[in-house]
Design brief:
The complex is a heterodimer of chains A (198) and B (419). Chain A has 198 residues and is mainly alpha-helical. Chain A has a domain of 41 residues. In chain A, 59% of the residues lie in helices and 6% in strands. Chain A contains 10 helices and 3 strands, in the order ααββααβαααααα. In chain A, α3 crosses α4, α3 crosses α5 and α7 packs antiparallel against α8. By secondary structure, chain B is α/β, with parallel strands linked by helices. Chain B has a domain of 121 residues. Classes of the chains: A mainly alpha (198), B alpha/beta (419). At the A-B interface, α7, α8 and α9 of A face α1, α2 and α3 of B.
Chain lengths: 198, 419
């Protein structure tokens, strides 16, 4: 019912509203929009979108509410008014497109599915983090930069499980640490002091 | 991995928590060592983490802990929970706490310290927000010049403290929100042991294994109160009716008073208790927002007393979870199910027996009729080890009647839990 009735209602009111609100022409002509969206735009809806720009200069449009809920950095930008909806996009020079897409994916899923039961959410998260080490680090850097608490905790938990209970040589292999940076004397000293940790 | 800033590695190592894992990780490479020294904020020494802690002598363990703590800086959460250690020496513990107290926010410590160290006094005046202390003692609290300005959560287990010091301690914590007392050793100054706590910021109180004459709690903002395994003569809560969650488990109290205004009560959970039903009912009858009511393994003072569904339905229209387990007798069944008001919002019904009788299935049926929107039914039963023939027969009849019942109530999801 709703959409049709709203449409009729709006199309009755539209002429009055247009003149009252002085809809600004875009690009020299009044853009023809579906009535529902005009109404929603006038009401300042949660469907308001913001633009995020990756390091590869690719632009991603995402619901403002989704990013504001998850990213402290973006929330602060919107709140203190430094982001202008009409014109600007948020440049994220340290996040590449592939990672940014994944981050947006995470935030969107968790906003829309926050009422799901715990098991389903955890299963989705496990699937989400099924990436290679490089992908994981990229996600970690992005989540750290954007200050997305729950994604950070999730990634920390995963990395922690990779380290827990392992010995030093094993950890070096897993994380591809080729040069440990200790002097030969330091390394020998460590091995003598904690032989069973190696 | 080399790209990760050292602070992020510090966070990863902090998530490891267990000291053994952190030490191993820090020996992996120089960057991780640096992260451990400068950016580690959480460290835990727990006998659960590493069985080899048990093989170390106490002095060796003290040295290990000291070396590890002193290699860090800016530690915010420290946890030393050792089950097999008799005691740590005071000088070592003082060293650990003095080294970390400027930045420490969370401290979990359960080892006896000899001679006694007033841990709260030593580090509570800085940034400490959470203190979980066990097997130590607290004495000489002076609220005039000793305040714990950041302490939000205090948990004392097997701690020796006088009633007076306990009273003073709570008033010395202007921001305290959660208080937990487990098996405290309350020194008596006179014949009557009275604990009187007063705090306008306390939200949650949990008391276990305490035996007192009088316990008076004055808390204008309290939301959650849980008493377990206590023997009290008088328990009085003085507040502004903010209580939301009230739970009693295996408590004997002669005079119980939770105040006049109980409109905000949402959860009431009473188990292993002898109820004087009219008195109890009077206490909670004005709680029209009640969402969960649980009366489990309760006994009634007067054998003829009965919990009747009519009263529950009229007083608690918002009730969504109802759990009842008590001895269902003939008179109780008939009178308890009188009336026709329905529990419209109840979606989960839990019913249990300790000794099964043939009336139980009638009781289940009677209650099912009164819950038109029920989604889940959980039956808890205790099955005795030595099953007499009679008991087996009753259980068989019960099973048969449950199957018949569930055929009629197909929208209800049944679960059975036997122990």
């Amino acid at each position: 019912m709703e959409l049709l009735c709203i449409r009729q209602w709006i199309s009755g009111l539209l002429p009055t509203w247009l003149s009252a609100w002085c809809i600004k022409p875009v690009g020299g002509a009044l853009v023809r929009q579906e009535p529902e969206y005009i109404l929603l735009a006038l009401m300042g809806s949660p469907l308001k979108k913001i633009m995020l720009c990756s390091s590869e200069k690719e632009i991603f449009s995402v619901e403002e509410q989704v990013m504001v809920q998850h990213s402290v950095i973006i929330n602060n930008m919107i709140e203190d008014g430094s982001y202008n909806h009409e014109e600007s996009k948020i440049p994220l020079d340290c996040v590449d497109s592939k990672t940014l897409k994944k981050v947006i994916d995470y935030c969107t899923h968790h906003t829309h599915h926050h009422n799901d039961n715990q098991e389903d959410l955890e299963a989705w998260d496990a699937q989400f983090l099924n990436v290679d080490s490089n992908g994981l680090y990229d996600l970690l850097m992005a989540a750290n930069y954007l200050e997305i608490r729950n994604l950070l905790d999730l990634i920390y938990g995963t990395i922690k499980n990779m380290i827990k209970g392992k010995k030093i040589d094993e950890i070096r292999r897993i994380f591809n640490i080729k040069d440990h940076g200790f002097t030969p004397e330091e390394e020998e000293q460590n091995r003598k002091e904690y032989p069973h940790f190696y | 991995m080399d790209q990760l800033p050292v602070e992020v590695i510090g966070n990863i190592l902090s998530h490891l928590r267990a000291a053994r894992d952190v030490v191993i990780a820090s020996a992996t490479c120089k960057k991780w060592r640096q992260a451990c020294c400068k950016h580690l904020h959480t460290l835990s020494f727990s006998s659960n983490d590493w069985p080899l802690y048990r093989d170390l002598t106490t002095s060796r363990l003290e040295i290990l802990i000291t070396q590890t703590i002193f290699q860090t800086s800016g530690l915010q959460a420290l946890s030393i929970l050792m089950e097999d250690v008799d005691e740590f020496s005071a000088s070592t513990v003082i060293a650990w706490l003095m080294y970390t107290r400027e930045t420490l926010r969370h401290l979990y410590y359960n080892v006896k310290t000899t001679p006694n160290v007033n841990i709260l006094e030593l580090c509570g005046r800085h940034k400490l927000e959470i203190l979980d202390l066990a097997h130590n003692s607290i004495s000489g609290v002076e609220p005039n010049y000793q305040r714990f300005p950041c302490l939000k959560s205090l948990s004392l287990s097997y701690v020796s403290i006088s009633a007076l010091d306990l009273n003073l301690l709570v008033s010395a914590c202007p921001k305290i929100e959660a208080l937990e007392l487990v098996n405290p050793e309350i020194a008596m100054s006179d014949a009557q042991v009275t604990v009187e706590l007063s705090s306008s910021t306390l939200k949650s109180v949990y008391v276990e294994a305490i035996s007192l004459d009088k316990f008076i709690l004055e808390a204008d903002g309290i939301e959650c109160l849980h008493l377990k395994d206590c023997a009290l003569e008088v328990f009085e809560l003085i507040g502004k009716g903010t209580l939301k969650h009230f739970k009693i488990d295996d408590v004997s109290v002669i005079h119980l008073d939770i105040g006049e205004t109980v409109e905000n009560l949402e959860i009431v959970d009473i188990s292993n208790f002898t109820i004087i039903w009219p008195k109890f009912y009077q206490m909670i009858s004005k709680s029209s927002n009640l969402k969960r009511l649980r009366l489990w393994d309760v006994m009634f003072d007067d054998e003829d007393e009965v919990v009747d569904v009519e009263t529950i339905a009229t007083c608690f229209p918002q009730l969504s979870h109802l759990s009842l387990s008590y001895d269902v007798r003939d008179g109780a069944l008939h009178y308890g199910l009188q009336g026709s008001s329905c529990l419209e919002n109840v979606v989960v019904l839990e019913l249990g027996w300790t000794v099964i009788n043939s009336l139980f299935s009638h009781w289940v049926e009677g209650l099912l009729k009164r819950c038109p929107n029920l989604k889940k039914l959980i039956i808890h039963g205790v099955v005795s080890e030595a099953k007499s023939e009679e008991e087996c027969l009753i259980l068989a009849n019960f099973t048969t009647s449950m199957i018949e019942l569930m055929r009629r109530y197909t929208h209800v999801d049944p679960h059975f839990k036997y122990e």
